[in-house]
Amino acid sequence: MEIQTIHSHVRQVEPSHLISELGHDTLYRLFPPSIRSCIRAYGILRRWLTSKLVGPRLGIRARQARMDLFLCAIEVARLRGREAPSSLPRDMPCTRSFVEAVLTSAVLSVESRLHQRAWQNLALSRGVQCDSLASFFTKPCVHSIKFKEPLIVDMGWLIERLLEIATTPDIVESLSLDVPQSLVNFNKRRYVRLSKPELDPHDLQTSMQLHLKCAITQPFSEAFSTGRNESKGLRTIEQHRERS
Fold first, then answer.
1. Whole-prediction pTM value?
2. What CA–CA distances, in Å, run from 113 to 5, 117, 118?
3. H/E/C letters for each residue in 207-221?
4. Phi, psi at residue 23, to the nearest 5°?
């Protein structure tokens, strides 16, 4: 079963005949070029990362090492998405970054979940259950990070927040039965205020350039090597754990 994301859903939304101003273009075509580039980059990176997990010629140990590296990268992305990484609990929600979104999507892909044996071996080595992705992070492997600069916010997360704000009513009816009246929905105002830093228009225009500058491929370059370099990739995982 394919897990639907906002990136894939946006590309499948057909034009509505209820809004004549939109014409016959799909919703994806109505976005600015920078937004379309972010969505397209997400799909390209997701397919590439998935191919590195499910390569047909990979051995069980090499595949398990790549899975472990993916999970470590997700932990690093979540730590960099927090304002105070050392003081906040690991399971506390945080703003989803582009790196975390594309890595998580690749891990949860249908092709990745077909390799159940490798995931079970990885869960056994970590001492956790293999029933969900969240269970792999009950015992963190990354305890500290060197670079604490926040990553770029995921474009899908921004679209989801905009949809929530747009569908939230501005006026709510009072609960008083004697004098019914319309009240300002201050919950929506608070939500907009809390989301304002991530919804900055300048960030939306420059996000594609920043996404492409993210060194998303560099941490995986050694572990992704095949053939004679498989043992080198395994040593990279062990060295990373020793440093953390």
1. 0.72
2. 17, 9, 9
3. HHHHHHHCCCCHHHC
4. 75, -150
Q: Give the C-alpha separation, 1 to 110, whole Å.
A: 7
What the block records as the tokens of 161 is 């927040």
Q: What is the pLDDT of residues 164-178, one digit of tens each?
A: 888 888 888 777 667
Give tens-digit pLDDT for 101-115: 999 999 999 999 999
What span, in angstroms and rounded, lies between the C-alpha atoms of 128 and 140? Answer: 10
DSSP string, 101-157: HHHHHHHTSHHHHT-HHHHHHHHHHHT--SSSTGGGGSS-S----S--PPPPBPHHH
What confidence score (pLDDT) does residue 118 get? Answer: 92
The CA distance from 156 to 215, in Å, is: 20
Neighbours of 154 (CB within 10 A): 27
Nearest-5° Cα angle at 219, 226 to 241: 95
Q: Tell me which DSSP letter residue 19 carries.
A: -
Q: 66 is written with which tokens?
A: 């790549």
* Length of the chain, in residues: 244
Cα–Cα distance, 138 to 154 (Å, whole number): 24
Q: Which amino acid, one-letter code, is at 202? A: H
Distances, alpha carbon 24 to alpha carbons 9, 21, 27, 36, in Å: 18, 9, 9, 17
